[in-house]
Design a protein that fits this description.
single chain, 154 residues, mainly beta, Immunoglobulin-like, four-stranded antiparallel beta sheet, three-stranded antiparallel beta sheet, 1 helix, elongated
Protein backbone atom coordinates (compact mmCIF):
# COMPACT_ATOMS: atom_id res chain seq x y z
CA UNK A 1 0.00 0.00 0.00
CA UNK A 2 2.86 2.37 0.86
CA UNK A 3 4.41 1.63 -2.48
CA UNK A 4 1.23 2.65 -4.36
CA UNK A 5 0.88 5.83 -2.28
CA UNK A 6 4.52 6.74 -2.96
CA UNK A 7 3.98 6.17 -6.70
CA UNK A 8 0.86 8.39 -6.76
CA UNK A 9 2.57 11.18 -4.79
CA UNK A 10 5.64 10.97 -7.04
CA UNK A 11 3.46 11.23 -10.14
CA UNK A 12 1.65 14.28 -8.75
CA UNK A 13 4.91 16.00 -7.81
CA UNK A 14 6.48 15.28 -11.19
CA UNK A 15 3.44 16.61 -13.05
CA UNK A 16 3.49 19.81 -10.93
CA UNK A 17 7.21 20.31 -11.56
CA UNK A 18 6.65 19.77 -15.27
CA UNK A 19 3.74 22.22 -15.39
CA UNK A 20 5.74 24.93 -13.56
CA UNK A 21 8.79 24.49 -15.74
CA UNK A 22 6.69 24.52 -18.94
CA UNK A 23 6.68 28.33 -18.90
CA UNK A 24 10.51 28.29 -18.89
CA UNK A 25 10.74 26.42 -22.20
CA UNK A 26 11.46 28.94 -24.97
CA UNK A 27 9.22 28.80 -28.02
CA UNK A 28 10.88 27.60 -31.23
CA UNK A 29 8.24 29.22 -33.47
CA UNK A 30 7.68 32.95 -33.91
CA UNK A 31 3.91 33.31 -34.29
CA UNK A 32 2.25 36.43 -35.56
CA UNK A 33 -1.51 36.64 -35.46
CA UNK A 34 -2.65 36.70 -39.12
CA UNK A 35 -5.72 38.79 -38.32
CA UNK A 36 -3.86 41.28 -36.13
CA UNK A 37 -5.32 44.74 -36.60
CA UNK A 38 -8.59 43.41 -38.03
CA UNK A 39 -11.15 44.28 -35.33
CA UNK A 40 -14.03 42.67 -37.26
CA UNK A 41 -12.13 39.45 -38.08
CA UNK A 42 -13.70 39.34 -41.53
CA UNK A 43 -11.91 36.64 -43.48
CA UNK A 44 -14.06 36.56 -46.61
CA UNK A 45 -11.99 37.09 -49.73
CA UNK A 46 -8.56 36.95 -48.11
CA UNK A 47 -7.45 34.19 -50.51
CA UNK A 48 -9.33 35.45 -53.56
CA UNK A 49 -7.54 35.15 -56.89
CA UNK A 50 -9.70 37.90 -58.31
CA UNK A 51 -10.99 35.85 -61.24
CA UNK A 52 -14.44 37.36 -61.08
CA UNK A 53 -13.27 40.96 -61.18
CA UNK A 54 -10.90 40.77 -64.12
CA UNK A 55 -7.88 41.42 -61.91
CA UNK A 56 -6.72 37.84 -61.68
CA UNK A 57 -3.10 36.97 -61.26
CA UNK A 58 -3.53 33.38 -62.44
CA UNK A 59 -2.84 32.11 -65.94
CA UNK A 60 -5.69 30.40 -67.79
CA UNK A 61 -5.16 26.66 -68.13
CA UNK A 62 -6.33 24.28 -70.85
CA UNK A 63 -6.59 20.50 -71.02
CA UNK A 64 -7.69 18.18 -73.80
CA UNK A 65 -9.08 14.74 -73.10
CA UNK A 66 -10.27 12.08 -75.50
CA UNK A 67 -13.38 10.00 -75.01
CA UNK A 68 -11.17 6.90 -75.22
CA UNK A 69 -7.58 5.97 -76.09
CA UNK A 70 -8.34 3.61 -78.98
CA UNK A 71 -10.97 3.93 -81.71
CA UNK A 72 -12.15 1.65 -84.50
CA UNK A 73 -11.02 2.64 -87.99
CA UNK A 74 -13.44 5.12 -89.63
CA UNK A 75 -15.15 5.87 -86.31
CA UNK A 76 -15.67 9.33 -84.83
CA UNK A 77 -13.35 10.38 -82.01
CA UNK A 78 -14.51 12.81 -79.33
CA UNK A 79 -12.19 15.40 -77.76
CA UNK A 80 -13.10 17.39 -74.65
CA UNK A 81 -11.33 20.75 -74.40
CA UNK A 82 -11.53 22.18 -70.87
CA UNK A 83 -10.41 25.69 -69.90
CA UNK A 84 -9.98 26.83 -66.29
CA UNK A 85 -8.81 29.92 -64.36
CA UNK A 86 -10.62 32.21 -66.81
CA UNK A 87 -11.46 35.84 -66.14
CA UNK A 88 -15.17 36.61 -66.42
CA UNK A 89 -16.06 39.04 -69.26
CA UNK A 90 -12.70 38.50 -70.98
CA UNK A 91 -12.60 37.18 -74.55
CA UNK A 92 -10.64 33.98 -75.25
CA UNK A 93 -9.62 32.05 -78.34
CA UNK A 94 -8.63 28.40 -78.32
CA UNK A 95 -7.00 26.79 -81.35
CA UNK A 96 -6.80 23.03 -81.78
CA UNK A 97 -5.20 20.54 -84.16
CA UNK A 98 -5.34 16.85 -84.72
CA UNK A 99 -1.97 15.71 -86.05
CA UNK A 100 -1.46 12.32 -87.65
CA UNK A 101 1.71 10.63 -86.35
CA UNK A 102 1.70 7.46 -88.44
CA UNK A 103 2.02 6.33 -91.15
CA UNK A 104 3.07 9.95 -91.96
CA UNK A 105 3.14 13.18 -89.95
CA UNK A 106 0.56 15.76 -91.00
CA UNK A 107 -2.22 17.99 -89.67
CA UNK A 108 -5.45 16.12 -90.33
CA UNK A 109 -7.94 18.57 -88.84
CA UNK A 110 -7.79 21.90 -87.07
CA UNK A 111 -10.01 24.69 -85.89
CA UNK A 112 -10.61 27.32 -83.25
CA UNK A 113 -13.34 28.89 -81.24
CA UNK A 114 -13.69 32.22 -79.44
CA UNK A 115 -15.96 33.21 -76.61
CA UNK A 116 -16.38 35.71 -73.82
CA UNK A 117 -16.08 33.98 -70.45
CA UNK A 118 -19.22 34.02 -68.31
CA UNK A 119 -17.64 31.61 -65.84
CA UNK A 120 -14.12 30.77 -64.66
CA UNK A 121 -14.36 27.46 -66.58
CA UNK A 122 -15.38 26.44 -70.10
CA UNK A 123 -15.94 23.03 -71.67
CA UNK A 124 -16.08 22.32 -75.43
CA UNK A 125 -16.47 19.13 -77.45
CA UNK A 126 -14.84 18.51 -80.85
CA UNK A 127 -15.54 15.46 -83.07
CA UNK A 128 -13.03 13.88 -85.50
CA UNK A 129 -14.01 11.27 -88.13
CA UNK A 130 -10.68 9.66 -89.09
CA UNK A 131 -9.06 6.76 -90.92
CA UNK A 132 -6.68 4.31 -89.25
CA UNK A 133 -3.47 5.73 -87.76
CA UNK A 134 -1.93 7.37 -84.67
CA UNK A 135 -2.76 10.99 -83.86
CA UNK A 136 -1.89 13.80 -81.45
CA UNK A 137 -4.75 15.99 -80.24
CA UNK A 138 -3.42 19.45 -79.33
CA UNK A 139 -5.18 22.54 -77.93
CA UNK A 140 -3.84 25.91 -76.81
CA UNK A 141 -4.89 29.45 -75.95
CA UNK A 142 -3.95 31.96 -78.61
CA UNK A 143 -0.70 33.73 -77.61
CA UNK A 144 0.05 31.35 -74.73
CA UNK A 145 2.86 28.82 -74.87
CA UNK A 146 1.25 26.04 -72.80
CA UNK A 147 0.21 23.26 -75.23
CA UNK A 148 -1.26 20.15 -73.62
CA UNK A 149 -1.18 17.16 -75.94
CA UNK A 150 -2.63 13.70 -75.91
CA UNK A 151 -1.77 10.73 -78.10
CA UNK A 152 -4.73 8.90 -79.61
CA UNK A 153 -4.56 5.80 -81.80
CA UNK A 154 -7.15 4.59 -84.31
Amino acid sequence: MNRIAALVISTILLSQIASYSYGDIPSQIEWEEPLKGDPDWKVTGRNSTGNQTGNNSTTPQITIEMGQSWYQSSSTATAYINSTDLTINKQYRVDWELEQQSPTTSIVDDGNFTWTATSTTDHRVVYFPLPKGSYWAVAWFLKLKYNPQILVRW
